[in-house]
Amino acid sequence: MAIAYDNVLSDSRMLSSVPSLSSSRYQSSQIAKAYRQAAQLFLTRRLPEALSTIEPIITPPDPDHVNGSHNGDLSAFAPVASASRGTRVKVWSFYLTFLNSVVELGAEEGKHAFGSTRWKALVSKCRDGSIWEDVVRDGYAGIEGDLDAEVVINLATLLLTHSPSQRLNQQRLETYLSASANPAFDVSSHMQSSAYLQRRPSQHNNGTSTPRDLNTRLKLLELYTLHILPRNDEWDYAREFISMSEVLDDERKEAFLLGLHSLKEEKEESETREAKLRQQQQEQLEQRRKESEARRLEQSRAEDERRKREEENRRQPRGSDEVFRKPLHRQGPSTSSHASRPAKKAVSPPPGLYNRASSMWAAMQALITNTAHSMTANPMAVFRTLLFLLAFALAFGRQDLRERIMRVLRNAWEKVRRTVGMGVKVSYI
Fold this sequence. Notes:
The chain has helices spanning 2-17, 21-43, 47-58, 85-104, 107-114, 116-127, 130-139, 149-162, 167-181, 187-190, 194-199, 211-231, 235-244, 250-330, 332-340, 353-377, 379-397, 399-428.
């Protein structure tokens, strides 16, 4: 059976390679040229032109223009399906990078560049994961295990970045890992294209035949176990997959498990921080609600007090007129009598010793000055004064008169002293 299968493959290779050699070279040249032009347009941010340039080589031809069956080539699939491995990787990697940039444009700029319908269709390929199916169907004849590992990495990364759910990404990557590790030998599928006959033998070795293939395989495992499975909360399965992997040696297994543990701790810490943040936000909202309620109550009380004051102010003029009008009629005479009384003079405090001495000295000076002036102006008055003093001296010379005068003077002086003392007390009060 194995010999018959090898003969079929050999005959198919001989029949398909010779007639299509020149056309295959021409098509490869056209694919490479279209790729370079699209890349240049992409670098200059002319995204619509880049898309229109790359689309013809990644889109299958119209079925009406395909004659018969596959005829030993890939005419029913996208032109890139018949290109060399390096060209395929470049074209599909470019297209996936292009889609990532289209999504990152945003709705406003994206719709302006491509139109609303076209932009939504391109974004939908990345978010619902349908781009994976498009690449497998159009670029690899529908054979999942034939995808180039670099293209798979870019597909998984694109879905990891933009797809809200990673379930489809996990399923597709598991299917690829299983198919590439255990390829199924389907004679009818392999007879469709000589390109696949040339490409399939490299898939029989777990993708680790060269250091480059091993490095690519490690990237796939890292993407699967440390990014996609944790996004789906498949922590235990990721740990088990790493431990059971035949590709990873003990050192790499330990590194992968350590990275998985760190990622889980980071996620738990992030969830704890988010929970605390939500709690703080809830407490702040509650505090703001209480403050708002307190301000509302305060404003309500202030408004009530203001209304009460306004009501009291509106009632007060009538009440005050009634209160003050009647007493004015009844107590008119008494009010007028009180008004006619002179106001009490303010009592000034008694002068000090220095002020009294100054006043006495000024009074003596005034007396001497007035006496001198009087003597000059009216000599008769002075003469009468001298006669009075002479008579007073003669009368004062008698003892009985002198004692009587002294007694009268003492009594007068005592009255004057008491009067002055009472005045001083009143002034202090």
